[in-house]
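Form 7-S
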Amino acid sequence: MSAVLQPREARLEPITIERIPAVCAIERSAYTHPWTPANFSDSIIAGYHCQCLVAPAAASGDAVAARRPRALWSRLAPQPGETLIGYFVAMKGVDEVHLLNITVAPACQGQGWAPLMLEALSGWSRGQNAQWLWLEVRASNLRALAIYERHGFRRVGVRKGYYPAEGHAREDAVVMSLRLNESNSAWGGLK
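Output:
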């Protein structure tokens, strides 16, 4: 059993072609039917909103550097010692955004990173003038369903046999949506 990683700070950066191997390593560790490198590169090329959550590397033995705020700009490739916590891929439509993939590395799950990424995606979506955020989730993924519902998503339908499952079986997807407005933002009441 691997140790649980508990980073204290993180930043969102674009998923780049250079980051795809690290993203796919998490994807393979988290799912029985993972996205392929081509799925991620196609998403980048298509201009989808592809972001990864990265815990910065601390200078060895430098506790002050570990607490110092990191630069706000993005780099193309992971830096030595950085940890990829998770990522998401979302596609913008006319007045909606569709969340295609959101994943937290198994060693970082249960630490609040998924809700943080959902809030970042919701904020970005509002900035794109989207009115709705949509997603599908495996019907068996009770943990994810609970996270989405706590974030304000509502179940609106089921796609029968949407996901591949073990053997040659298929699994249903629960379709969920979130109406984007100021009241469902963590920052909505602050001016």
